[in-house]
Amino acid sequence: MINQTNGIQPEILTALVTMRMPYGKYKGSVLCDIPEYYLVWMYQKGFPQGKLGMMLHTLYEIKLNGLEFLLKPLRKETFR
Predict the structure, then answer these.
(1) Residue 59 and residue 56: Cα distance in Å, rounded?
(2) Which residues contact 26 (CB under 8 A, 6 or more apart)?
(3) Which terminus of the chain has fewer Cβ atoms in its 10 Å neighbourhood, N or C?
(4) What single string gives the DSSP state of each residue in 5-69?
């Protein structure tokens, strides 16, 4: 989710490196590890409703725009 004044909310970025995919081909994978081609496929089919859909759509935008570097420091902190 994008905050009008500060860009992407930090809680969302943290969740992208900790939350796991609950179903499908990448069930159990940390969201940030889901490959871009799968996110593109989901974008074309339609993201699920609710928080998961918002998280996947945010991840899609991050990967599409080459902003994965935003997640790397958070991932290192999370998996120490």
Answers:
(1) 5
(2) 33, 34, 38
(3) C
(4) TTEE-HHHHHHHTT-B--SSTTTTSBGGGS-HHHHHHHHHH-PPSHHHHHHHHHHHHHHHTT-GG
- pLDDT by 10s per residue, the chain, length 80: 544 445 678 889 999 999 999 999 999 999 999 999 999 999 999 999 999 999 999 999 999 999 999 898 888 766 54
The structural domains of the chain, with segments of one domain joined by +, span 2-71
> pTM to 2 decimals?
0.83
Task: Give Cα 34 distance to the centre of its chain.
Answer: 8
Site of tokens 């998961």: 52
- Cβ neighbour number for residue 11 with a 10 Å cutoff: 9
Q: What is residue 73's predicted lDDT score, i.e. its pLDDT?
A: 86
Question: How far apart, in whole angstroms, are the C-alpha atoms of residue 30 and residue 14?
Answer: 11
